[in-house]
């Protein structure tokens, strides 16, 4: 890792902050890495009460080595925004690695980047990747060539460690893991429908039904355009 | 959870952002919770390249239900800042739960809050808690009465789920875990000295030796004041 490596996180209103703050914490320890949080016009992004300021205008970025698109409830608006999508396409075109966390893969899909590609997504929306011609894969971190994608929210940490291993070797990734004391010990085993109690999954699906259906409908409309 | 529950995160220069963005992402789903990121004078905090703006002045906060102090390389400066420490003491005095992530426990210790109390910390500095009369415990999440502390950085997510279970029940914590897809699958098993390859731990200790020793000396000086 002799030359600087630029990692761009394109943020947008309604982004889920842990989708990018998790990978950011990992990738900032990558030797030679330069991390950039960007948004349309460099506007500040308020995500769930946290105000991220001093962002770089997406318009000012000519290229990057790694493009990392986070997910969030605002992903559908981002998918429908031609300005935002055009910057994703432009930066992805010249990036060495095109990556996403959570529903960030839907943004890549809407930008036409995932056709025929295997990708991860938040479990609630994983299947909708197929509407864009992508191949949904229910795994924590998915790689298809130079495209890396992580599953829902917290998968961004596992994704970022996987990317560090690719870029700088396994030993570097392990040292970062040790520094961040990433030996997770969730107090419960409920982090995915495959392992959570069935009643809990049913309850979660029921309580989010209206929101999910509305979002899925919007995603479908975007996929048909 | 009928009445609003106020959670205050006191930020300071040199805070590690994942120490609070992780718990923030969990606790924001706690029904009725109001999360507040604060700093001395409400000054923006730049943490590892991310600029957190629109912070509440610590001076303006009269009380909170949960105080959550994150860690970071700047913790020693925070420990030496009498203004900052006095706000920690004042808010802790009336909080129902006093909590920390990573080296945030050293700040609680410097504020005199952990005497005789069991607490967690980042593995590199865990033993230094004893210099303040606290009882260091090498666990991911430690509880002593109304004091909850998490280990290094990423332990903040496990800590926050544990706190949600205390405040709103296990089912709520599990639903948040499911929503954040927190079924961690680290690509390596190197997140703690107990499990990482011995050579890796030795290398990490060697490469951080000068920094660690300097920090430990500062922590010791503070503990003797």
UniProtKB/TrEMBL annotation, chains A, B:
The record's annotation in Gene3D superfamilies points to: 3.40.50.880
Gene Ontology biological process terms, A to Z: regulation of DNA-templated transcription
Top-level division of the source organism's lineage: Bacteria
DJ-1/PfpI domain boundaries: 7-165
Offer one Pfam family short name for this entry: DJ-1_PfpI
**What is the protein's given name?**
Thiamine biosynthesis protein ThiJ
